[in-house]
Design brief:
By secondary structure, the protein is mostly helical. Among the domains are: 118 residues, Alpha Horseshoe (Serine Threonine Protein Phosphatase 5, Tetratricopeptide repeat); 116 residues, Serine Threonine Protein Phosphatase 5, Tetratricopeptide repeat. Helices cover 75% and strands 3% of the residues. It is built from 20 helices and 2 strands. A two-stranded antiparallel sheet has the order 1-2.
Amino acid sequence: MKENLKNLNEKALKEYNLGNLEIAKSLFEKIISIDEESYQTMYNLGIIHFNYEEYSDAEKYLVSAHRLNQSEKYFSSVVDIYLIQNFIKEAENFINKNKKNYKKNIIDKVESKVLRQTKLMKLVEAYNSVDNKNITEKIILFENYVDNYKKDPIGWKLLGSMHLKLAENNENSYDIEKNIDAFERSYKLNDKDIDVILALGSLYHQKKEYEKGLGLYSVSKKYYPNEASLYFNSANMYVTLNELDNAKKELHKALEISPNTYNYLQNLAKVYKDLNDNKNSYILYERMIKLEPEKAVGYRGLGAINLIFGNLKEAQDLIEKSLELEPGNVDASQNLSICNFRMGKNDKGMQLMKKHAGVISFTTDKNEGSFEIKE
């Protein structure tokens, strides 16, 4: 039996080191079913569940490993799993219960982790309580925190998010360089936080640092191959660079992942139109109308394509429908005036022309670094 357990353990560790976590987990579970006292296996299962962010299961195995073997590593791992779940009281109780078993430097180390997590939770509370009147005042709290905990990615992320709040509130004190610096520091400490990646990419876009932004998205796609926002935001950057074929490829990938996302369809329809592929643009606007018939954009876009095709009555009906849903839209009114001119209704066309003027263009969404069509 010992030989069998040894072989199973070697196979499990090999699969784990190859990154085949499911196979490794299955093998470790088999070992536990044979030997319930295998603390190393308990620990390994805890780490696998931790990697899956299955913290409750990770806690069960890590606590069991420590019960069987009170090594410093297992002791620290239990404190860590409590803290990742923000179980401050549980961590404190666990430390106090086991304090006599470990040297002072080990206790000091885990207690400092608890103190940092406590301060971080208070910082999160402060972030959630911020309103437009006290952003500048509160940001000092976040700056002080990262001064003390320079290697905490969440602290830098929160500071970056506070800078974004300054931008949203049009504060004169907003500094995009400071905003980028905070998110870059967070990213360097944890390059897998998708919120930080998207925020940083958006800021690079605003700063016109397109190479950095596209590089960031390219690397992040390796970690998150099914994160549609990465492809969507890459496409928007390519649109800004007027690299429409690349934008088209990225939007198609985004839609493979999330086929019914309105903004993705919307931007791809606009890209096709700018590539003079009005047939595919037409198809996409039809999909948009079926997907969300209460939105004006689909009707407005399809009306514009029908106007290009010379289908004047269809164009008129669609544009008027868009104006019912979004009265006063200048672009729809302009297209409707052109439609009336071409239909020989010059008086009505002139009336609309005098009232409105506009163009079909992309507009920026600062929160996501996205661009949406505006007909």
